[in-house]
């Protein structure tokens, strides 16, 4: 599949679509998932065009994973999680719905299941509050 520069994550990178950003550097961006499967569901993406795991230069992948780890630490702290699930779907058959490489970070609590994938849009105020919690945890790092 060719990379589509009009996909929604590409628009978020270019600031043409809104997102609750929690972290950003030259090569990587982290923001709240608009249809969170658990409270605190965060996405980390490289800023380079890459459809999926098979389409990204190793150096960019290394940077993206390093940021994923850093944001996961903050998410765990911000949501007092018992554990953190990191997921990456490559290809429609694997469930990928947005074709710009991303890592999902989901804080998990014992006995609490996650909601359906990409189904219900969360209220903007809730996402804003969750993003703020994660930003605070990142600065306390
Ligand atoms: P995938 O199915 O490709 O692994 O995950 C795509 C994720 O992007 C889903 O969890 C979905 O909720 C999220 N998503 C889809 N559209 C948007 C959007 O416009 N903004 C944000 N922040 N997340 C989105």
The overall pLDDT, averaged over residues, is 97
Q: Helix and strand string, N-terminal first?
A: HEEEHEEH
**Ligand names:** guanosine-5'-monophosphate
Rg value? 14 Å
Characterize the main sheet: 5 strands, antiparallel
Number of strand segments: 5
Shape: globular
What is the count of DSSP helices, taking H or I runs of 4+ residues? Answer: 3
Q: Low-confidence spans: pLDDT under 50, at least 5 residues?
A: none
Class from helix and strand fractions: alpha+beta
Residue share in β-strands: 15-25%
Question: Fraction of residues in helices?
Answer: 25-40%
In whole angstroms, how far apart are the ends? 38 Å
**How do the strands of the widest beta sheet line up side by side?**
1-2-3-5-4
Secondary structure elements and pairings:
Blueprint: H1 8-13, E1 21-24, E2 28-32, E3 42-46, H2 58-78, E4 83-87, E5 103-108, H3 124-139
Antiparallel strand pairs: 1-2, 2-3, 3-5, 4-5
Helix pairs in contact: 2-3
Describe it.
The protein is of the alpha+beta class. It is 30% helix and 18% strand. The chain has helices at residues 8-13, 58-78, 124-139; strands spanning 21-24, 28-32, 42-46, 83-87, 103-108. It has a five-stranded antiparallel β-sheet with strand order 1-2-3-5-4. Strand 1 (21-24) and strand 2 (28-32) form a beta hairpin. Helix 2 crosses helix 3 (124-139). The longest helix has 21 residues, at 58-78. The termini are far apart. The mean pLDDT is 97. The site of guanosine-5'-monophosphate has 13 residues, from strand 2.
